[in-house]
Structures are given as structure tokens and as C-alpha cells.
Amino acid sequence: MVYNEVMLQTKAKPMFREIASLDFSLQRVRELYNEEKECVLMKAAFLLREIATKHTFMDGNKRGASAITDRFLRINGKDLKLKMEDVEFLKKVGAKKVKIRGVKKWLKTRIN
Question: Would you call 16 helix, strand, or coil by DSSP?
């Protein structure tokens, strides 16, 4: 799983708090935003915000959310390029200070 890979790369122990929360988030992504022109970006934005704010993991929620969103975008033909300064933005996302449309706008500036 992507979360486990990221946690091991950062020398942290991967631990789920609530696996059902992650399953729910992934199911919601499948159901949401199908009518929207840029549905892949909206789904990615939802996924990132949902995982970062639900605290599915004991540690690494923002790292896990970023990695899972990156994998989702790659599966859908997009390449996410994060920068060091994005850590501050991800903290705001995790603190629910950024709405999904704001996350979508940010993602748009970070994909190829």
C-alpha cells in the first residue's frame, strides 16, 4: 500500500487508526464529481483533503494523503510535482483551512 511505502521511506512506523475511514474516502471518490469537466482534479482534491483531515492514520496523515493522491493522479495520467514549500499548504489542508476547490486550484499548479 502507498501509505506503508511512504512511512517506511520516512523511517516512520505505518499504523492505521481507522481503516474503514480510508475505505469510505476511496468509495466516495469513485462516486463524486463525475459530471464535472475536470473530475480527475476534483477527485484528487477531495481525496487529499479527506485523508489529511480524517486522521485515518496514527501518524503521517498529510504524507499519506499526498502519496495516495500522487498515485491516484499517476493512474489517471497526471504527474504531481511537490515542492518543499508545499508542506505549509498541506498543513493548512490538514487543519481544514482550505476547501476542496482551493486544493483543486493548488493541484492544478502542481501537475503536468
Answer: strand
The answer to whether the CB of 56 falls within 8 A of the CB of 70 is: no
Helix, strand, coil proportions of the chain in percent (round to 5)?
60, 5, 35
3-class state of residue 52 by DSSP: helix
The pTM assigned to this predicted structure is 0.76
Q: Which residues are CB-neighbours of 46 under 8 A, at least 6 positions away? A: 28, 29, 32, 33, 100, 103
Phi, psi of 34 (to 5 degrees): -70, -20
- Cα of 70 vs its chain's centroid, Å: 7
Read off the pLDDT of residues 40-68 as tens digits, 9 standing for 90 and up.
Answer: 899 999 999 998 998 777 777 888 889 88
Spatial contact of 104 and 42, defined as CB atoms under 8 Å apart: yes
Domains of the chain with CATH codes: 2-108 (1.20.120.1870)
